[in-house]
Amino acid sequence: MIGERLYDLRKDFGLTQDELAAILKINKHSISSYERDKSEPPDAIKIEMAKFFGVSVDYLLGLTDDPNPYNGKHPVIRLPINFPESAKRSLYDYISFLKSKYTDRQDEDA
Question: Against a cut of 0.90, is the pTM above it?
Fold first, then answer.
């Protein structure tokens, strides 16, 4: 998965393999090998890639489709393991309800 994501990000940024290799201070053959999933970059290189492209390492690895790294500015609520998908949908609906309820109140208070 990292190969496909790396290739897409590099193309989105308009970079050649040579240019990305220079930025990451590695050789072009390594970039080519990573993009073809022939080898996997060391963790330190994955971190540098994520920083450069402004994505999470989880995104590079294919663990999430959300490229945005967690920035610590928003609270996170951890759901229990095996939390049912139907319950997640209900939870998202309830969050939307609460957001609209309290947004409407703020408008009234102003």
Answer: no
User: Domain coordinates of the chain in residue numbers?
Assistant: 2-61, 77-110
CATH number assigned to the domain covering 2-61: 1.10.260.40
Pull the structure tokens for residue 107: 């408008």
Give the tens place of pLDDT for each residue, 59-106: 999 998 888 776 666 666 777 888 888 898 899 899 899 989 888 665
Q: Which of 90, 98, 7 is nearest to 53 (CA)?
A: 7
Q: Which two tokens stand for residue 68?
A: 């945005």
In degrees to the nearest 10, what's the CA dihedral of 40, 43, 45, 50? Answer: 100
Contacts of 64 (CB under 8 A, 6+ apart): 56, 58
Distances (CA, A) of 95 to 62, 68, 75, 91, 100: 27, 21, 14, 6, 9
Would you state the torsion angle of the CA atoms of residues 96, 64, 47, 33, taken in this order, to the nearest 10 degrees? -150
Q: Report d(CA 56, CA 93) in Å as an integer.
A: 27
